[in-house]
Amino acid sequence: MQTTAPTYGSDQSGLVCGYLFGRAAGGQGLPLDSDAARQWLQERARHPQEFIWLHFNLANTASEKWLHEHTALPDEFYDSLHEGPRSTRLELADNTLIAVVNDVVHDFTYEPSDIATLWLTVDRQIAISARRKPLRAVDSLRNAVRGGEPIRSSVELLTHLLRDQADALIQIVRDAITTVDRIEDNLLAGKLTTKRASLGALRRVLVRLQRLLAPEPAALFRLLQKPPTWMADIDTQELRQSTEEFSLVLADMASLQERIKLIQEEIAALAGEATNRSLFVLTVVTVLALPINIIAGLMGMNVGGIPLSDSPHGFMVVVVVVASFTVIAGWLSFRRQRDASQD
Q1: Calpha distance 319→327 (Å, rounded)
Q2: Which DSSP string do the residues of 284-339 spell out, in sequence order?
Q3: For the residues 137-155, what does the mean pLDDT come to?
Q4: pTM of the complete model
Q5: Do residues 317 and 261 both lie within one domain?
Q6: CA 127/CA 18 separation, integer angstroms
Q7: Tally of structural domains, the chain
Q8: Three-class SS of residue 218?
Q9: Distance CA 123, CA 72 (A)
Q10: Is-contact 155 122, C-beta < 8 A?
């Protein structure tokens, strides 16, 4: 009995999708399979006005083998595939753009594990992307290309991807803002239904998103200052604009983190006030019970000479004395609390 090897949503070579762009199709992408892509790569010198986009699933172990056999990608790209989590970066190696883009998975639920990495290598005629989990940004780009949106160059493809990533991040920030607004409204209404721990988890995820998604400024600055010779000026300008838009989104995320921090401090202050009130009530009860406990302890001694033991009005005298001391102790306690609240 023969079994079929798993393909993880890709073909046997690990290719999820492939598209050919050129003037003949008006800039729109023509679908390619792995065989057609291999043939085009062998004849790429005959098509200088065309470029290709290949998207691979690294969960299929055949992906790297296919890339090694049919492409001449820089070693830096293969090295980046086996690195640990790093922030988003875009750098130049052997006149080829190498990009490591962190993005969120489709069913993002504010969990740190919902962030995955997309690797790209881009030159004038080839754009190759690879991932291990389905990501929002690259699938949005894939749907746009499938819908017939024209792409002028391989760099515009990369720029489109960065903008799709920024759009996904904007939606996450909007959802987080909605959650924070609801918590603030409940807090102002006196309904403390959210714990600091849940806000802390949201804040930690936002910090992780900002740390991983923020582009490395040094590498990006060097690239924009000295772009590769094959990159057009309009592509350089659009890439610069997309990074500026991304920076604005990250700034909004930073301000949201400050809001969450202030709400956490307010919740901690309210919890502290509630604890102080409980301790005050417990202290008052203890103070009010102190006179009767002391007098009852003294009067309950089995020794001679207990006062008022032979008086017919002894019980009432003791009750009046205890009540007087209790009233005085309560008045002093509430007076001290009132003076502290006024200060």
Answers
A1: 12
A2: HHHHHHHHHHHHHHHHT---S--TTSS-TTHHHHHHHHHHHHHHHHHHHHHHHHHH
A3: 88
A4: 0.71
A5: no
A6: 10
A7: 2
A8: helix
A9: 11
A10: yes
Residues 6+ apart with CB under 8 A from 56: 10, 14, 15, 16, 63, 66, 67, 128, 129, 130, 131
- Say if residue 236 is in the same domain as residue 283: no
Q: Which long-range contacts (CB under 8 A, 24 or more apart) does 141-148 make?
A: 142/17, 142/55, 145/19, 145/28, 145/29, 145/53, 146/29, 148/28
Average pLDDT in the 129-136 region?
87
If pLDDT is split at 50, 70 and 90, which confidence band does 192 have?
A: low
Which residue in this structure is represented by tokens 């000026």? 233
> For the chain, what's the residue count?
343
Are the C-beta atoms of residues 73 and 94 closer than 8 Å to each other?
Answer: no
Residue with tokens 């604005």: 248
Phi-psi region of 31 (alpha: psi -120 to 50; beta: other; left: phi over 0): beta
Cα distances (Å, whole numbers) of residue 89 to 53, 76, 198, 215, 254:
20, 13, 31, 5, 19
- The DSSP letter of residue 276 is H
With beta carbons less than 8 A apart as the criterion, state whether 151 and 145 touch: yes
The answer to whether the Cα torsion of 55, 90, 67, 14 is positive or negative is negative
Same domain, yes or no: 193 and 292: no
Helix crossing, 196-213 with 154-188: angle to 10°?
160
| Residue with tokens 């924009």, as numbered in its chain | 224
Same domain, 289 and 253: no
CA dist list (Å): 152 to 28, 158, 214, 224, 252: 9, 11, 26, 19, 31
Question: Does 3 reside within a domain?
Answer: no
SS3 102: strand
Residue of higher predicted confidence among 219 and 143: 143
Task: Report d(CA 162, CA 164) in Å as an integer.
Answer: 5
Return the amino acid letter for 5. A
